[in-house]
Design goal:
Blueprint (H helix, E strand, L loop, with lengths): L1 H51 L3 H11 L12 E6 L19 H9 L8 H10 E11 L5 E10 L4 E5 L34 H6 L6 H4 L5 E4 L5 H6 L4 E2 L2 E5 L6 E2 L6 E8 L2 E6 L7 E5 L4 E3 L4 H12 L11 H5 L10
Antiparallel strand pairs: 1-2, 2-3, 3-4, 4-5, 5-7, 6-7, 8-9, 9-10, 10-11, 11-12
Helix pairs in contact: 3-4, 4-8
Amino acid sequence: MAIFAADAALWWAGGIIATIVLLVLSAILVPGMFWGEKTQVKQESRTQSKASSVSPERKARKKRNDVPGRIEDEPWFPEIEFKTWQEANQLPGCPWSFDGCDCVEDVIKSIWRTPLHTGLQQALSALTSRVKSVRVARVHYRMPDDETFFAVVYSLKSGAELFGGQPLDMSVGLDLEGICEPGIRRRHGSAGSPQSRGKPADSLENGLPCLAPFYRIHDGFGCLLSSKHLAVLLANPGDSIQGSCFYVYPTRCLEPLRSDPYLVRFARVDKDCAAVADIREELPHVVFAETNGVITQDDEPPLDFVADTICNVAGQKVVPDHMSYQSYHAYSSDAMPTF
């Protein structure tokens, strides 16, 4: 019993000592923990206060430095600007003037300019009946040659978009001398300006002057599946981007075939076929040139072919009377789009 009482006393004394140790540790550690939290809170508060004191200019500079450079800021990326026909006069150097126009039909007739060649009347009618709105685009290429191109974008009632290049100031093969032509701004020296890339009149005189009535309206014509494709097509008219392309090539793309230098390509039928004409003939006819080398003669004049092409891409089906060459691929699976 004496031994048990001694052990109990020792156990009781040990418990008291352990309790005292725990109380001492709590008195030391707990205030330290709260002090650390208070210190962290104070540090975060000072950091936030410091961040809020940074000037907006410095914040913007830091944000610009953190964000990778935009592709639009690269010197080779073209600058493109669209304006409605009512705002077209805000584009520096715009070749069209729509003064006196009250509606879209007036605008289209102003662009197509009177007197209009009889072979283009059907194309004009197809556009005036199907176009819902008209915009003007200005595309500036800073590199490599600091060039600027203009184009008219026709938005159809179906939602599709067509486009035509800027007109050429020339009268090759036309009896238009002395006639005042509305709807176009005359610019001195425009034929030799960088915007026209060389001498369009000379190109037609040495190539296909029979197409001059069209090129005085639009230097090339095509369709757009996306407005973003326009800048690429104006720089590279021979390209096709997801269905967007030139169907009537601009004068700077009137190129002879490698197999026959007398046959000049002036229009696209589809990816495997081009419309060409013999520059040796005074009144040439359309010749279809396949990429595999097959040549098919036709009896349609190039200007009529251009008018029919515009009607087709505008959604007005045109089937030549002779029904030759599958209506120049108008209904093949890879031909001109219908809207």
